[in-house]
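Tutorial sheet, problem 5. The two components below are modelled jointly, 1356 residues in total.
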Amino acid sequence: MIRKSILLFGLMVLVVMGDAQVNNAFSLMPVPSQLETNSKKCRINEGTRVAVKGHPDARLFAEASRFVRRLSNKTGIFLDKQGFVAASDSNEHALVLINVQRQGNLKLGEDESYNLATNENQVVITANTDIGAIHGLETLLQLVSSDENGYYFPGVTIFDEPRFAWRGLLLDVALHFMPVDVVKRNLDGMAAVKMNVLHMHLCNDQGFRVESKVFPRLQKVASDGQYYTQEDIKEIVAYAGQRGIRVVPEFVVPAHTTAILTAYPEFASVKRDYTLQRYFGVFNPVMDPTNEKLYPFLEKLYTEMASLFPDAYVHIGGDENTGKDWESTPHIKSFMQAHGMKNYMALQTYFNQRLLPIIRKTGKIMMGWDEIFQPGVPKDIVIQSWRGNEAFYNSVKQGYKAILSYGYYIDLIQPASYHYVNDPTPDSARLTGEQKKLILGGEATMWSEMVTAETVDSRIWPRTAAIAERLWSPATVNNIDDMYRRLNITSLNLEALGLQHIAYKQPMMRQLANSYDTKALEVLVNVIEPLKIYERNQGDTMYTVFSPFTKLADVATPDQELPRVFNKQVDSFLAKPSPELEKNIWEWLTVWKNNDVQFKIVLRNAPVLREGAGLSENLSLLASAGLDALQHIHDKQKVNADWLKQSLTIVAAARQQGGRCELQVVDPIEKLIKQAAE
Amino acid sequence: MIRKSILLFGLMVLVVMGDAQVNNAFSLMPVPSQLETNSKKCRINEGTRVAVKGHPDARLFAEASRFVRRLSNKTGIFLDKQGFVAASDSNEHALVLINVQRQGNLKLGEDESYNLATNENQVVITANTDIGAIHGLETLLQLVSSDENGYYFPGVTIFDEPRFAWRGLLLDVALHFMPVDVVKRNLDGMAAVKMNVLHMHLCNDQGFRVESKVFPRLQKVASDGQYYTQEDIKEIVAYAGQRGIRVVPEFVVPAHTTAILTAYPEFASVKRDYTLQRYFGVFNPVMDPTNEKLYPFLEKLYTEMASLFPDAYVHIGGDENTGKDWESTPHIKSFMQAHGMKNYMALQTYFNQRLLPIIRKTGKIMMGWDEIFQPGVPKDIVIQSWRGNEAFYNSVKQGYKAILSYGYYIDLIQPASYHYVNDPTPDSARLTGEQKKLILGGEATMWSEMVTAETVDSRIWPRTAAIAERLWSPATVNNIDDMYRRLNITSLNLEALGLQHIAYKQPMMRQLANSYDTKALEVLVNVIEPLKIYERNQGDTMYTVFSPFTKLADVATPDQELPRVFNKQVDSFLAKPSPELEKNIWEWLTVWKNNDVQFKIVLRNAPVLREGAGLSENLSLLASAGLDALQHIHDKQKVNADWLKQSLTIVAAARQQGGRCELQVVDPIEKLIKQAAE
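Model answer (structure tokens):
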């Protein structure tokens, strides 16, 4: 029996691409430094070829070949004649001509600029380095436009270069492991928005994620079998390098080392039975800096790891040491007293000073979190700032190089707009030109307490594209509405790379609803978000590495579009009522009001969703109150006091969490209710 | 601006899971040998534990641990207390108790049976081997049911064992390469439906896909960089073995060897410039069996490859030799004459007889396609039959062991029902008991001319589950309607494993439509299928390895449910009209009639979809004619001759392909039209 809900109740879709023909020159993300458009159209057809001039290299040939396949997949045009772009492809009249001067080096500050110019017959990309040219190819793919005659590259003249040299994504593969294919598709996403540093957080209390041949107990007893082989690491580094992306490894010491201490407990400050930590949080286990055997161990470990990661930087973590295991251990306490150390932070500085020559010996530059910035630390380290902008400016004001992560914590489920306005060098910081130069850039941080391989893309994308733009584009590119317009388009472009940030939702909803019919669930999911900041994990007590992350709070995504747009519509309506806005608001409220009946039917077969029953009921009651309010506003009748009191009770109830999620349309409906009482 | 199509035009969803509470004992796939149900319910909650008795091994512990996580993910119940099932988990009162006698061997004919019994307090799985117990765990996951009190295992008593010992899936990773993660998720799918052989087709004219350390040119010049490292192969073999699945490698000789000959042209029959074949089909390049240096080469190659694949069998292909390069080469022709060989097949038999001792020396049993079955071939080989059931029965009647693939060619886009009724030992074959014993089983074959990593799951699943059932369950389990009912549920279970057979469609539709709104495209996609058998590739001339497989024919899937169900509804209606059926048919026809207007709007921004414009128009015209017919049937008025003629013209036009797809609702609408003329 076919049952159709079509005529009764349909699925809502936010249509972000208009009917009009789009010239994608105005949808680029990140926005180029300089962009001029013209009305010329360079047509793409089966004769389209890519040719390379100057001093191309293997990387450029591979990326140009990948460009051909992506262009073919996007347009459906058979470009079979050019299986690979090779040195023999040097026809000056090829539709896409790339001219590069030299191979770029994977190092901080390398020239990443490019020029891109289109006329009717040709696109020419000119760059000093192949890395610049690769950025140009990403821009060119974003430019693909269409009209009644098919696909074309629109006429543009672009000069583009990054504002900051360090544009990173921290991927935490320690708290929840991320398989190689997840890392690879996120590298593709990073390249698409011109990010250039993958910072891999490779160990923590929950596991050590890289095979060590020198200390094999690290993967044997401290990874649950979830680690990268050295071959995997080489593959990731090569894959990243192919896209012009550096890989900076982080091996956290001296705290957050439960995993290392599980494998090698002799380096712990306190003798205990160490086993992998299953919860997430800040714990006491810490290495013993007074143990002279620790330093040869660290030297061997960092030396082996350094050999896997060719980048000039290595991150030593250094964060969140509680100091308790130091303060409570007599021989360490004595050591501190003997060396005149006032507190455990002084001991950590001592530790860092011992570690620094080890890192230098491996040929690397040491970097770490805010905490390593203590009096006496040499100036050739780099500080990654997570504690706040003040700490960040303080570092550079004292002459240290720094990168910003505070404000880019994408695990905290805040909207893209929040991250977008977080400028690393705002005027308000009153930095000198010299100080500004010390600010290398920033990194979005994807901590993985609450994410798995299945959901991680949805926590990274598309929001990280807004951060990528902040770090690449001129500071003057800061219109939030336009950012969101382009972010919607960018999100589809990212999906073309295989990223699962949109696609994971339907399968997860089918699993949750235990049905192919996910409409009622989707109506709810589209107006909720997971609890923000660190609320979801109830003070680190609720979730462990073994918890199911396949529930309502996992299918809910950050920065939902519908509530954002609905809120804007309500604001517009309250500022200046119009029949069209009123109709829109009325229709959405009606959908939400009626959805609970359908959702209750879903719940019969889906006990896992019953934790969301309250959210769905509250949404219905709230929408119902909103409809009453709208009617009163329409009729220009003031509501009575009882109704208002009752409605505000509904509003308060609707702010309660359910299934570790919260409704995102409470504020705009509350505004309607209050307006109706005016 | 939010635009809502909700109130205008909704998305249709086939609701296959009813509202009623489902006891999943009746939805198992494959159906067990013996199943009794009772009304007991064994509740699943946070106290649920798995314990193991008898002689468990590392594989069983790992699979039991995976079971705990899957159960937690499916139900959302926190089972964090049991991170891993270990030897210490031996509590006889655990909710799930597994009792195994010994570790199973990964060999043909191993005991795979298990017993599963549920009462209110416990599920007990008893099996001779851990492989049987692992099958029992898959059954147990399928059994998970729910009611108003939450999740439970329903009361059952099951004894289960396979009908055939060889239940395989051939995955062709040569024509289009499939990355390791694609192979792994398909192994998970195989295990879920109790398949036990992954046959990897590892080389063909388009590429050699395994790293060879002895002959590194194979991957260097004959793989386009798309190959498995030896570590990858070990990983795949281990992953498969962990699920009780054998991996049988196929290295095709002497034809389909363009890739090998590209690397080592000295072994070719004809001197040419060999380069990787980009088209798909049957080609002349073939090894020279008269070259004595060929055999040491093959011995080294098969010996190296044998060391990577522990299974007892190795497949040597042997198919589709045109013989032309032999017949046309003087020294080979002379050799054939000197040895009294009448044709090239005799020379291939000579080649096989030379190869057989080489394969034996590696410790393996040789198998190959039908073509290797020639007079004089020794009886310890295994024939894989693709040419037809007669060839298959002929093999076993002459005393050869054989497995069936004819009728299981899932690349040919035929419905599950077609494969399901293809019994390897039907009564009509008149086989003796001894002959039946020679039939080891069967293999679904996923040839990859027309599939990529993105689409391959949708060509394998869920249809292969029907083949898995044919090979596992008693022959008497053969009700097609019930198979489809259970296949729908199984398909969702397969999706929980990460298989992309359903999930890939929405992202691909978004890419095609260049929009988040895919409704109009989906209406069309739900009633079309790719051209069947070998029609899509226009006699091997249309597609190459570089072609875009991201188009309408790629998002269209085999065996669409809606046309099948609609056709049944029309049949029922014509047999016995009812208002309800009439309303259903009317509603669908109305949807299809009206969709073209919406689809045309999609086309404005999506030139790639314009190849489907004709299909959409034809669907609209066809549905319009169907509505007319329905009206006449309703009014009991005969249509006039002109209308009939015109409508049948529409029907004929609607049978034309568009975008290498065809409409699947032409037959039922034609029936309505003809009925209206009666």
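Marking note: The first helix of chain A runs from residue 58 to 75. Full credit if you identified this.
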